[in-house]
Structures are given as structure tokens and as C-alpha cells.
Amino acid sequence: MKILEGKTITDVKGFLANGIYSGVKRSKKLDLCMIYSEYKAKASGTFTQNKAKAAPVTLNQQNIDNENIQAIVVNSGNANACTGENGYNDAVKMTEKVAECLNLKKEEVLVASTGIIGVPLEMDKILPGIEESSKILSADGGENAAKAILTTDTFSKEIAVEFTVGGKVARIAGMAKGSGMIHPNMATMLAFITTDVNISKNLLDKAFKESVASTYNMVSVDGDTSTNDMSIILANGACENEEIISEESADYIEFKKAIEFVNETLAKLIAKDGEGATKLLEVKIKEALTLEDARKCAKSVVSSNLFKCALFGNDANWGRIVCALGYSDANIDMDIIDVFLRNESESIQIVKKGVGINFDEDAAEKLLDSKTVSVVVNLKQGAYEATAWGCDLSFEYVRINGCYRT
Amino acid sequence: MKILEGKTITDVKGFLANGIYSGVKRSKKLDLCMIYSEYKAKASGTFTQNKAKAAPVTLNQQNIDNENIQAIVVNSGNANACTGENGYNDAVKMTEKVAECLNLKKEEVLVASTGIIGVPLEMDKILPGIEESSKILSADGGENAAKAILTTDTFSKEIAVEFTVGGKVARIAGMAKGSGMIHPNMATMLAFITTDVNISKNLLDKAFKESVASTYNMVSVDGDTSTNDMSIILANGACENEEIISEESADYIEFKKAIEFVNETLAKLIAKDGEGATKLLEVKIKEALTLEDARKCAKSVVSSNLFKCALFGNDANWGRIVCALGYSDANIDMDIIDVFLRNESESIQIVKKGVGINFDEDAAEKLLDSKTVSVVVNLKQGAYEATAWGCDLSFEYVRINGCYRT
Questions:
Q1: Residue A400: closest CA among chain B residues belongs to which residue?
Q2: Is B250 an interface residue toward A (CB < 8 Å)?
Q3: Where does the signal peptide begin and end (chains A, B) (predicted)?
Q4: Which residue, A67, A229, A249, B244, is the most exposed by fewest CB within 10 angstroms?
Q5: Domain-terminating residue out of B241, B270, B299
Q6: Residues A225, A319: one domain?
Q7: Contact assessment for residue A184 and residue A388, using Cβ atoms and an 8 Å cutoff
Q8: Of B210, B242, B270, which residue sits at a domain end?
């Protein structure tokens, strides 16, 4: 598997896309994105577990398992969430309009929205936007598509990889957006993945959903699980490999590795671009009794407001790490754990057998002043590990979310 | 029942206390508190569910059900948490020293600590402090005692009430401290309650523990459950009522009402004085299917970072309230709920049947700019209700916890 620098979702065979300004965002930034597969494609997706589901989530859950999914339309600036029956009807109208323009059935179109909650969609802007967008779909449009799904994000989140299946060169590419209300549960923020691999629907589901659990679901920016989370993959088989149908096959293993890498890369980019974040936090749990224990511990530390503030201030406050492990509800023995702080070049042990040890506080402060900081916890109990990603809690997070009129 | 303005824990018959500076706090503020009952007393307590329990928590859990508890010693500035076996031995030494000075058994003394995690206690300051403190115990010392348990709190938290049991005038008084790492789970921050009521140990436990579940356990400042949470009540029977032994008796009901009021008052003061808080947030859930559903909903909204930021900015962002209800894991129907914002004088409906309604945004902004803001949610499903308390998330919270060297 190799990473394709600078490539995006439209660098996968048979996928066209674009991003335009339809008139919804006050900032006049791109706010409407369309993704289209020239070939019939299978889809798999995961959706928010929040009971307050946005209209597009409800609609997609009905359509995701249809035999063919050939287009996705996404608007940003308005989440079409908590908008009642009218909101649902608007989501349906968006898929109808796409279907009409691209000569598809409306059940072959998925829809996503992100932005403000509770405000009716401006359909008088979105429907003409869809029409315009459908006319300029392009194999160069991936970059604009990735821009058009952003809200408070400060940069586009894209990744593309290439690998071989059944002697054919295959690709997977993805794009995602954060960056607040990020604490996915069995689902994610918005992520859209394209691949030209030919794979059975069952195995596509299996590979994608398993991967989501260890990537997007391990990210937290602020503990708030959104109403609009979704991640979707379209697989159009255009690379012409023989269909992957066995999970024991080398092809499936290669595909799984690639999808895992793509999802993890996007998950980390979302955490890094968390609202107000000055750095990426990575929490690695080692030697846990079960996978669930490892994940609980990792998410508990990565979600701790107090530790996130300490990280913002470059304070090696290990007590807050141990405290968050303690309330994680995981099966752990506090008296045997070790904790380390790491960046790319250094590692400093700060806790040994559950108790703080003497360490060089200045060196730790310097280490914490890195773009990526890892907290490594060894539970010394079992064979499982997990990693979660998040960011620090800064003044800027409060400003973005508290000072809406400035 | 009447509230005794300006009264404190030592205004309950038979209780003496004080607060002194032992030398632990760099700020030179009071940092050692002792509470003493002149009569034998029964105790009840609740303790943190965090697996990383501080030494005093572990020790008190062994002693809380002893027949007689006559003294509590509390130091602030150092939490004696994650300090291993030495920390436990230090906690034992503190009870031994108190016992020696007051002519008690060490098993009749409880101990609490609050402050920085992971630093060994300075016993060379604390033990002489205990000796000094034991010599100046006084019926006027409650006020200093309440000061000596504070850390980042900006004011003392005290309450006293008077009521009648079995023809005798009885009192309950309490003091507590917050104000960060506050998200108690079956326990609390530090709260110490004194009463002169004569009541069976069983009913003391029942009344106190039930009350803790609906008061301290319904507070969240930052979602971080501390290593040191505890709430303790001492009942010395000095008001000479006939022992309360039936939970059907009018006396028990009166006692329960009073303890509920005292605990709720302290819980609200803790929320109001949350780190960086500019206002008190009260979330009332009505007509829930079960008590558990009501509590889950209330705690989910009161803990939402995003809604807390909106509250700081006086933004009536009802979408964040609905979102937090949706991920609360409670059994609710999002399509029928109503949501109101309230302060002392006004009420504004913002959500009807799960959908935002037109409301006067300027009036809502003005309402939110109050010292106490209530969010009232009607789930329209059942007969249960619950209230949770918290505060807004401000720049100051980040400064307090992120800028430790300034």
C-alpha cells in the first residue's frame, strides 16, 4: 500500500465530484458538494446513535443497503436537524433533484447536511445549486468537494492510497469534516470514502464498520455526539479485480488494511483540527484485559476537560490522566499502571505502578509543546490495545462556541 | 423547617470546629479543618466511585460504619491521591494524631484531603497543625472550618436549618467545597453535614444516601469525577428527640426533607462556584418514563460543553440542548418534547414537539444573562422528574486549568 500525496476522492477510477457555492453560507465559502460514480456502486455507512437524528441520517438509513448507490449530495451551513417532517421532506427533495439531474432513481442517492441545527433548509438556493453542480461534475473536482463540506474546520481533510488486489491496482480515497460536536458513537462526523475495489456487500460492510469502531469512534473533540454524524463508503468495482468474497483472502486483508489506514488518517485530521485545538492528542492504551477496556480508558483520557486544559498549558499533570483512567469504568488495577508522555523524538515516564515519579518538569513541558503529543498507558493486565485521538481545550474553543455574535 | 441565616456547622448542638493555616497552601490561606462532636455520633457517608481512590477515601470506607465517629480532620492544598502506600499511612497517621489529641480511638476519626494529586503530604506541617487545631476547637469555629476546606472555590458554602422532631428543636447544618473536577458519581466533592438529631444508623444511611443521589450526584462542573469525592454526615443526638426508627414516622419525613434541602443547597452552591462559572445552570426534566431517564437527560444537558459555551455567550442555542438529550441514552421520544428557558421572572418556550419555534432572540439573550438560568424540558412520557445543576464554560475555566504557571 502506498500513500498518494495530493490525491483525493476523484482520483479513484470512475468517481466525479465538485463543490460549489449555492448561497447558504453567509461567509460565501463553498457549501454544496456532489459525488458521483460513473459505475454502479455498493455502499456501506455508519450513522449517529443520537436519538435526535437529522433528516438526512434517517433517509440514508433507509437507502444505504440498496443494490446501487451512485451519488451523494452534501450541503454545509445548515444541518437540517430538528426540523421535523418538513426537514425530512427537504432531504427527500434533495435526492429527487439529484436523481432527476443525473438520471438515477432517488433511492440511489444519499444525502448529508452539516451546520446549524433547527433552521429550515433554504431549498430555493439548494435545488438550483444541485442543478448547477450536476452539470460540472469532474474528475478534478475532489478538492473543491472536500472544501464544500467544511464548517468551522480550518483545513480540508483528505487522503488517498493505492494497493493491489487480484493483480489489479486499486485505490481508496476519503474526505472528512470536523470540527465541533465531535464525540462519535458507532458513527462519525461526516466522512465520505470512494474506492474502485470490487467487493461483496457483506465484506464491504464488515471491513468498513469494524474500521469505523477503531478510528472515527475513537475521536473526541468536546464530548458532544452530533445529530448528523455519518460515514459512507462507495465501492464501484472499476478497478476490475475479481470480486472479493472471502474474509480469509489476501485481497480482503489488503483492502481492510487500506480502509483502516484511510479512516484512521481522517480521524486524526479531525482531532487535530478540533475547534480551537493547538495540538493533536493521541492516547494509546496497552496490555488491557479486553478491547473494550482499552477503548474505554483511551476515550476517557482523551475526553477529560481537565487534562485537555493541562495539555493546552503544557502542564504534565499526570494526576488528571490517572483520575480519568479511574472513572473510565474499565476493568483496571490502578496500582500497577505506568504512564509515559511521548512526542516524535522523546519519551518521559511520569507514573510508575500508579504513583507519580520524579521527572524533569521542564523537559516534560517542552515535550508537551509539540504539534502531536502521545500519552501511553500500560495497564499490564492483558493483550489488548486501543488508541484514541483528541485535542487540547483552549480559549479559542470557548470563543468559537460561546461568542457567536462576535 | 426554617433556614438559619448566617449559621454554620458549629451552630448544631454539641459540635465544635475550627480552621487554621498549617503551612501547606502556598497562598497562606486556611488549610486545615477539624470537626468534633462532644457526644458520640453516628456517621453516614458516600464516596467516589473513581477506581483511583485517594488514601482518605479508602481509610474512611473502612471506618464510616463504626459505632461512634466523633471527629473529622480535613486538609486542603494536597489531595493525598495517587500517593501509594505512603499516602495511606499518612492518612492513618492523621487519624492517630487526632485521636491522641482528643482522647478518641483512631477508628472514631474520619479524614479528608483535597488539592493537588500525587504529591506526598507534608506531615511535618500537618501533624503539628492537628495538635494546634485540637486545642482551639470552638462553637464559633464553623466559619473558619468552611474556609479551610476550599481550594479554587471563590466563596464558602454553608447552610443551616432548624425543624422539629418529637417535640424537640433539631438542626442540620452543612458545608461543602467545589469547584473543579466536579462530576460526582454516587458520591460527591467534599461535603460535611452535622446534625443533633437522634436517628437510627439505618435511617441515617437511607435518608443521606437517597438525598446524595438527587443532589450532589446531579452536579457537574466539568465531567471529571474526582479521586477524593466524599460527603459525610455526623448525627450526635444532642437535641434529645426520641430516636427516629421508622421511615413512616413524621419525624423521619421531616428529617429527610431537611437533609434534602441542606444537600441541595450545597450542591447548587458548588455548581454556582464551578471553576470559571459566571452563572448557575439548572436543568429540570419533567414527565420522564423513569427516574433514571429523567436523571440521564438532566445530567447530559448540564454536562454538554457546547451548550455550556452557548450559555456563557447568552446564546439560546436550543439545538445543543436537543442534541444533548438525544445522546443521553435515556428512553425518550424526540418528536414530542418541549423546552423552555427560565429565570426568576420569565419563561420563554424555544422548542415545541422537538422542533425549534420562533421566539424573541433578544429577550432570550437577556434572560440568559441572569445569575441563575433554568432549562426546563418536558418529555411528556411519564411521571418522573429530576434536576441537575452546573455552570457555563468560560475562558476563565481554561485559564484556571490550563495556565498553571501564571
A1: B309
A2: no
A3: none
A4: A67
A5: B270
A6: no
A7: no
A8: B270
